[in-house]
Amino acid sequence: MPEARKEEVLAFDHVTAGYGNAVVLDRLDFSLQRGESLAILGRNGVGKTTLLETLMGNTRVMQGAIRWQGADITRWPSHQRVRAGLGWVPQEREVFPSLTVEENLTVIARLGGWNLKRVYDFFPRLRERRGNYGNQLSGGEQQMLAIGRALMTNPKLLLLDEPMEGLAPIIVEELSAAIRRLCESEGLASIVVEQHPVLALEMTHQAIVLERGTAVHAGPSAGLAADRGLLEGLLGVGIAEDLAR
Length: 245
Ligand SMILES: Nc1ncnc2c1ncn2[C@@H]1O[C@H](COP(=O)(O)OP(=O)(O)OP(=O)(O)O)[C@@H](O)[C@H]1O
Ligand SMILES: [Mg+2]
Description:
Layout: E1 8-19, E2 22-33, E3 37-41, H1 48-55, E4 60-68, E5 71-72, H2 78-83, E6 86-89, H3 101-106, H4 116-122, H5 124-128, H6 139-151, E7 157-161, H7 169-184, E8 189-193, H8 197-203, E9 206-211, E10 214-220, H9 221-226, H10 228-235, H11 240-243
Parallel strand pairs: 3-8, 3-9, 6-7, 7-8
Antiparallel strand pairs: 1-2, 1-4, 4-5, 9-10
The protein binds adenosine-5'-triphosphate (ATP) and magnesium ion.
Adenosine-5'-triphosphate is lined by residues 19, 22, 24, 42, 44-50.
């Protein structure tokens, strides 16, 4: 069978970016092919969130270019990027506390394949909680709502910043299965930032490891997951307990 033709959907081309005059990402290079998911790994403060913020247009790009589906989007405002298919699930979830689940979902909806019914079918728990306010939800429910809200904008690429942070193991299982399903059956690409490398590598095709804003490793997730020595060397001692899972 001929190998499926690879098609680049996203590329960071020597991107230097940060806040004010402070450089956080330093000539960062990577690309993502259609239908692929990418894990962004690295210790605290290396620039993982800044990478996603840069992709969304919320930082200052000093050098380099960002390409999305063939267009140079480096100078695009963030609302235009959302319209072009970038779906952002922020690290703090940012669920509106004084709106109900249903209001949270409909406030930023855009026409497309995803609508309220499909989000509720995908996360039945959100349907049960449709009348609850954002501040009455558990951490797991808030994360489902944050993902559901991104889906309502009908994205082509889902950006997830530490989606499992602070959640109980059973919820982590449920959510990681849901995220995988979004990629496998719904054809969504994803970029997942995670503190737990094993979990992130299980959920993705490709991985990059950041150190001080630059990629020190890039390659298939399965290969990195299988090479515990390399993984420990790249991410340090803090991952011992994660490897024991
Ligand atoms: N809004 C901001 N203004 C100025 N500096 C910032 C801002 N946000 C982050 N930084 C700095 O950029 C660097 C990278 O931070 P970033 O949040 O991207 O790291 P991270 O890898 O996501 O860390 P964590 O694992 O703790 O979430 C840090 O030195 C941080 O202090
Ligand atoms: Mg972060």
